[in-house]
Amino acid sequence: MSSSLLHADTVTDLMRDVTAAAAAGAARLAGARQPHEPASHDEIDRALSRIDLDTPLHDFGAAVDELDRTWLRHAVWFHHPRTLAHLNCPVAVPAVAAETLAATVNVSMDTWDQSKAAAVMERSLLTWTARRIGFPAAADGMFTPGGTTSNLQALMLARDECLERSARTPHAAPRPVRAASLRILASAESHFSVSTAARILGLDDDCVVPVPVDAAGALSVPTLRRVLADLATQSLTPMAVVATAGTTDRGAIDPLEDVAQVCAQHGVWFHVDAAYGGALLVSPTRRDRLAGIDRADSVTVDFHKAWFQPIGCSAVIVRDGHTLRHCAHHAAYLNPADTPEPNQVDRSLQTTRRFEALKLWVTLRTMGPDAIGAMFDAVIDLAARVAHELRSDPRFELVCDPSLSTVLFRWTPPDAGNDDAAGAPLAAHASSTGHASSTTGNGPDAVDETADRWVRPIRRAVWDTGRATVAETEVAGRPCLKFTLLNPQTTLDDVREVLDLIHETALSLTAHDRTGKARA
Fold first, then answer.
1. 281: number of Cβ within 10 Å
2. Cβ within 8 Å of residue 401, ≥6 positions away
């Protein structure tokens, strides 16, 4: 079966098969008139269960045709302007092409004798990113599969630095710091990967201390100071403070300068999770919103979010490259300590790694960083325009002002006391404050209860149409609908179309609900 392997004699097969695969994907993408074609889990499962993986087709074209029927027809297309649910982005064409190059060579990035020029290119990109952050020349970093791994590596370094510092200076405390006493401070709206990292690192269940946020969803610095003081009275040691530059739901950016100052005063590792907001590093107009990020000890950046790169492509960047020693391991068969060339496995939690940096490299060399930043600026601008629309649209309630490109809102149920409410324009039933009376009573609390109850049914029903995708989440204990705008091709008219779909869907659901209750 060596004829199926890629080598000098099968390059024509490579060209033929890659072209066929690309053509199949391109045809589906070009023909996608909506985000996805409706199909239930059971329908898809039944179709795939009929495929016998022990009986090959012995023909690549037949395999692609089968994929077209079983996978591509059910794909969710993130390039579609009405795909508004998640932090998945449409991807840059040069990056997709670069993925084929990376797979063709199949380079592993762990050692120099497997990667050569690829290692130098990767290191150049890490240095470039560190410079964009504002780190000194001693900075270093590593590419990872995603923000969860980047945060894990950063917090591992923070833990080991804290324990090592305690061991070096035992006179600074009554006794050496032990892992059980370590605490990580993060805002109440930080990503769950912070808690995941704490568990993986073997820290106590209560290691992560949530710090309350202000009305805009950003970490409260006065409260951070109080929590740090409380930890000292309990003989607990803060090993890291995690600030977020772009929370998943609100897109809030914590006050990085102020948090940095607090961390410096207390000698605590300062990590910035900029998985979402890190693209502001290349924004032509909003780079100042990351002021203070240059004072961090480590930073997470996800290039597969607002940098428009295919999954997965993230990096953790550290101010002092020497701290990466905590994840170094030298194996005689792989990377002896006296090897003169750089071995990336010395800096990574992984051994075998794909050349994920290649797609970012090719994108930067083709488009340039300003173009990437301008696309992120465009979706941030769109979010502001959508919020402005929602403020004046009585069919909806804007939950909070957007910070980046996420918009949180709820559908406002019409007055069920009117017999025509299910089909009439909602504006006719709205009060002067923009709130309609509730189907379960009168007053704001009743309105809130009814609006909350319809969030999930609306989201699921919209999904079932295939015409749009919208997410749901919870803020301040209440559910809400969520737009994640990451497609520069999405227009305000596209969003208006989705809002109309949400309203129509909600009216249909409530009418059906009232009919069912009447029959009961």
1. 24
2. 216, 387
Mean pLDDT comparison of 110-114, 412-416, 421-425, highest-scoring range: 110-114
Q: What are phi and psi of 475, to 5 degrees?
A: -135, 130
User: Strand order of the sheet with strand 182-187?
Assistant: 140-144, 314-318, 298-302, 269-274, 237-244, 182-187, 208-211
CA distance 392 to 109: 52
**CA gap 230, 224 in Å, rounded:** 10
Place of tokens 């000292």: 232
What DSSP designation does 435 have? -
Residues recorded for the chain: 520
Task: State mean pLDDT over 33-57.
Answer: 95
Residue 45: how many other CB atoms lie within 10 Å: 9
pLDDT in tens, 277-328: 999 999 999 999 999 999 999 999 999 999 999 999 999 999 999 999 999 8
Q: Is the peptide bond before 292 cis (omega within 30 degrees of 0)?
A: no
Output the 3-class SS for 39-76: CCHHHHHHHHHCCCCCCCCCCHHHHHHHHHHHCHHHCC
Report how far residue 355's alpha carbon sits from residue 363's, in angstroms, rounded to the nearest whole number: 14
Alpha helices in 173-303 (DSSP H): 193-200, 221-233, 256-266
Nearest to 199 by CA among 232, 268, 146, 151: 151
- CA-based nearest residue to 33, from 96, 83, 71: 83
- Residues contacting residue 384 through CB under 8 Å, at least 6 positions apart: 402
Q: Are 151 and 271 in contact (CB under 8 A)?
A: yes
Q: How far is Cα 443 from Cα 457, in angstroms, rounded to an integer?
A: 23
Report which of 354, 244, 251 is spatially closest to residue 306, judged by C-alpha positions: 251
Confidence bin at 442 (pLDDT 50/70/90): very low
Q: What is the DSSP string of 448-466?
A: HHHHHHTHHHHHHHHHHHS
Dihedral class, residue 345 (left if φ above 0, else alpha if ψ from -120 to 50, else beta):
alpha
What pLDDT was estimated at residue 351? 87
C-alpha to C-alpha distance for 58 and 207, rounded to whole angstroms: 54
Backbone angles phi, psi at 253, to 5 degrees: -115, 120
Cα separation of 99 and 298, whole Å? 28
The answer to whether residues 481 and 471 touch, using CB atoms and an 8 Å cutoff, is yes
**DSSP strand pairing (83-84 vs 314-318):** unpaired
Q: What is the pLDDT of residues 206-249, one digit of tens each?
A: 999 999 999 999 999 999 999 999 999 999 999 999 999 999 99
| ∠ Cα 268 269 270 (to 5°) | 110
pTM for the structure as a whole: 0.91
Question: Is the distance from CB of 258 to CB of 293 less than 8 angstroms?
Answer: no
Which H or E run contains 258?
Answer: helix 256-266
Please tell me the distance from the alpha carbon of residue 164 to that of residue 169, in angstroms, as a whole number: 9
Residue 271's beta-bridge partner residues? 242, 298
pLDDT over 70 (residue 99): yes
